[in-house]
Amino acid sequence: MSTVAAGALLGLVLGVGLVIVIYRSPPARKVRLADRLDPYLRDTPVPSRLLADGARRGGHSESDSSGPAGGRPIMAGGTAGRFGLGAVEALVRPFVEDAARRLDGFLGGRVALNRRLVQAGGRTPVEEFRVQQVICAVAGALLGALVLAMRTLFGVGPPALVGIALVVAGAAGGILARDWWLTRAIREREDRMLMEFPTVAELLALAVTAGESAIGALERVSRLTHGELGTELRLALADAHAGASLVQALEGIATRTSLPPLARFVDGMAVAIERGTPLADVLRAQAVDVREAGKRQLLEAGGRKEIAMMIPVVFLILPTTVIFAFYPALVSFTVIAQ
């Protein structure tokens, strides 16, 4: 590495360090309301550790396939302390949280994001999701900075301008990758709900036919099922026990999801409860409709897979067959021409 490149790198590190020190110094740091109230609240009694343990056991990820930055809190103090990273976490946390707030203000769409997080299971708050996006952006920027460092240290790689563009593209790609993973988690969760829906509808129909009321049938089925739709039924029952009407609680299921079959199912149950229509017949009809819709989706997926299977046939198998068919004749013609 040349002397000029080494001096530029050291100057860049020194400049970034000075900017961080000045920016986070007490005179330049904005005093928040929480900082003003903190000295007066320090003598608050510490809550029971049993509550903290219960909250820790109750927390779980947004989905099993929610990606490298799932619903579990990114900066969990217990794990960091166990591995001796508590000091690093304490230093990094304010910067990450500040970057998450700035990213949230820059991207906006907080209401739509909150709705998507609810559709993904509702276990990840918006602030935590923004923190995960910041961490993914930093990881993507580090990948781009690695290319720039290779160029600076060893003179191998793209030009400096391209390296800077890679850093910016890596940061943006990290943010978009976390958003894409959320979309994938929503899609997979809704697919699981569609798979569970016919069975749940038939169980509800059986319970109503046996003489259960609508709330009794929902309570019985929610105890027997353990999937995503069972969780939604338990949330609806919790809303109903909290004072909402059963129709409003069922409409909350349709609000928390974006599945048209489930919305039609909720509307059918609401109409049957309000107008006195036989609920068992409505539930059976809804289950039959969902099974037919599932069959149509399987046929459509099979058609798409059939078209996708043509790609290796046309571009791999067919050229290989043509080569094996014409190569002997080509060799014969070459020998004869000699």
Automatic annotation (TrEMBL):
Keyword set includes Ribonucleoprotein: no
Domain of life of the source: Bacteria
Protein's membrane topology: Multi-pass membrane protein
GO CC terms in record: plasma membrane
InterPro entries linked: T2SS_GspF_dom
Region (Disordered): 50-72
Location of the Type II secretion system protein GspF domain: 202-324
Composition bias type Basic and acidic residues, residue spans: 54-63
Annotated keywords: Cell membrane, Membrane, Transmembrane, Transmembrane helix
Residue stretches spanning the membrane: 6-23, 134-154, 160-182, 313-337
Xref: Pfam families: T2SSF (PF00482)
Intracellular or extracellular location(s): Cell membrane
PANTHER family: INTEGRAL MEMBRANE PROTEIN-RELATED, PILUS ASSEMBLE PROTEIN
Annotated protein name in UniProt: Pilus assembly protein TadB
